[in-house]
## 1
Amino acid sequence: MLNLFGNEPTHTPPVPQAELSDEEVLVELTKIKKELADQVVVLGHHYQQDDVIRFADVTGDSLALAQEAAKLDKPYIMFCGVHFMAETADILAKPHQKVVLPDLRAGCSMADMAERSDIDECWSFLTSATTDKIVPITYINCAATLKAFVGDHDGAICTSSNAQKIIEWAFKTGQKLLFFPDQHLGRNTCYKMGLKLDEMVIYNPKLINGGLTAEQVQKAKVILWYGYCSVHQGFTLDHIHALRKNSPQTHILVHPECNFEVVQGADDAGSTSYIINQIKKMPAGSSIAVGTEINLVNRLAHLYPDKKIFSLSPYQCLCTTMYRVRPRWLLASFRAIKEDKPINIISVSEDIKSSSLKALQRMLDLSH
Ligand code: 13P
Ligand code: SF4
């Protein structure tokens, strides 16, 4: 049976080191990480759980980790994040380096919402519907094959930290934008830049021609793919209304993967790094409701006990796929390297790599 997103389900592998307690796993990880310090560098996305983040040599959002991956030299990059991030690291890695994703099931539901064949179909419809130059922009949260498509069609990749810069560049080189897979980051960023909502249309890959007519494509400036983050989708306008009523002094800060109404209703919106920096700057005693992944929100709450930091949603908005990277899986990957039989290697084929690299390099160049 196919899963919710129409893909083959992945099967749960046996839990590694089942004979060790959680505490013993952490003790052995501390030891083995020191032993392999010359060989392995650990990168951790901010949404990872604390017991993984404590082993990270570098923590960051998607942009910071991609920038870091391009600079590293150690033979193994242990990527504690999700699949598309590890692929990005492999595209940017040097030939002698290997990228390890401690649990291969750590995917991203948003990335799974755009397949290469659907993008190809969309592109042939759009380019037959208009003579305007369309620039494809993909959010970094996608498979390497989509990054390669963008590289081969003179587009660029963006993250939530640099989406505005990349879109500004795109409008200097073409008249229209195809933005995938996250409709919300595309819409929120373009609206902030002054585009009107009626200049943006949605392309739904499940419908014929995305549900669009050629005339709608001709009139639109931005074509947004019908994709979203199931975690950030959990924050609603009702949560904002409830807070405004019960705690009017609370500052509401959300990620641009949240939907348009939530971003408009919030006090401020920005990428994971932006959220962290804003919270850091806020005075002691501030009350801040945050619309992003719960591991980060809880970590910030512990880091700044003099501020009241909590999730905008009363429910746990957890990225369950990020959460698959657990200390046990990290330890299994370390042990395998020690035995010289590395596992969970993420390897992008050379042709996809060289096409994706064009789009990634453009992003890195534009991000300074
Ligand atoms: P950033 O790391 O760009 O903030 O994106 C958040 C996210 O959802 C990562 O998958
Ligand atoms: Fe994907 Fe959302 Fe998880 Fe980020 S938070 S990895 S976009 S599902």
## 2
Amino acid sequence: MNEATQRLFFAIWPDASTSGALAMLAQQVAAESGGRATAPGNVHLTLAFLGDQPSSVARALSAAAARISAPAFDLVVDRVDSWRKNAIAWAGVQSVPPPLLELHQAITRSLVVSGLEPDERPFAVHVTLARRIAAAVRRPLAPPLVWHVTAFTLVASELAAAGARYRVLSSWPLVAKT
Ligand code: 3AM
């Protein structure tokens, strides 16, 4: 019998106020671009997509993630942009904070020790705001949205009648600044 699998990804999940602000931005950008806004509860920043994985791999990933010690940081979301190739509009940053790269690298190492192949493509820091856009958008976001990142999460993507639904399985804290 095949072992049950879950479609997994590591992400940074917004706190309630950041989630609300990003969901509002998603509505605006969807209207500007003629796309479909990301559902309010689904807004996130993907750190690594893992695909369908059996529970044994999920456990190994969780154990490796629990050993990560990386600093908390602020993410200054200050631009909106889009990709023509997959018709997505997204929010991003002019400057990627080094602790985010550090976290991404630590997660890549967790994948490797869990027996997974890391994504070879460069890490594209983005929060998907709208899909199936008809017109490109590219503009600064002023004032910027300051996202206090204090944890990272392992998330399962589940298909529901209304589309993908994301469920946070576990969260691990980042080390607070002193
Ligand atoms: O952060 P976003 O919303 O861009 O696009 C999917 C979503 O990213 C991405 O993983 C996140 C959670 O579903 N995703 C889905 N399939 C993927 C794949 N085969 C993928 N990323 C890379 N390769």
